[in-house]
Amino acid sequence: xxxxxxxxxxxxxxxxxxxxxxxxxxxxxxxxxxxxxxxxxxxxxxxxxxxxxxxxxxxxxxxxxxxxxxxxxxxxxxxxxxxxxxxxxxxxxxxxxxxxxxxxxxxxxxxxxxxxxxxxxxxxxxxxxxxxxxxxxxxxxxxxxxxxxxxxxxxxxxxxxxxxxxxxxxxxxxxxxxxxxxxxxxxxxxxxxxxxxxxxxxxxxxxxxxxxxxxxxxxxxxxxxxxxxxxxxxxxxxxxxxxxxxxxxxxxxxxxxxxxxxxxxxxxxxxxxxxxxxxxxxxxxxxxxxxxxxxxxxxxxxxxxxxxxxxxxxxxxxxxxxxxxxxx
Length: 328
Hints:
By secondary structure, the protein is of the alpha/beta class.
């Protein structure tokens, strides 16, 4: 029964993308590190003290006549054209294994970030193992934070960046229906060819610290590529009591998750909230982004502003815009 319901929901998404003209879009040219560059959908490129980290980019945006596709394949030429230089990336973090987040990761690991290790769920690992050596795949699900209990920190080679996975969830897509559910329990022999083959697996949020020479956090970033209902996605209690400086939120399906983003923002109290995954990704041109279908993006902007602390700012970036981090 689930597959017909999922197909029905997928067809409901086959409307028109939104004109973003009324949205408070953020556009900014390149700036020196520390920098956070939005790459579109859930992708970000972060640079700090000579090291770099990627949150899983997505450029292929497959579609069937501008509508949600049933079969998907990475567009390597498009990835090569749009992907910024990323040979210095040592960590690539994945929130969940749906195609709009993981489809392009194999080619990026092979052609653009050949020294990076990829961190994510067991399902993510089973999918990527079809084409990526197991030595480059890290099971972060086994070490994720659960509730108030912290998880394991994973460090970059230079130990100036560290990341912790947090148990989270993916909100339903529409009318309480979640698409592309399920997981894998063994390595695949080839990458999935259909949208339903890119199973969600365990969804993770991420806590990323940018560290000084003594290993102390200068910046703390909370990242989500899928909206979640609390307490899932909330950070654990850490002994250093460091405040979250940047909260990266997900616009997609935000109103399908209970109390999102209110409870999360009340917990994080971020100095900067970044709203990503707001633009349509069914064959969309990232240089001329359109808003997600059937999403009230302006309401998400309003909810975020309402629940930010007094010193908090909001940014809704266009793809490839650079986001200045708050002063340390």
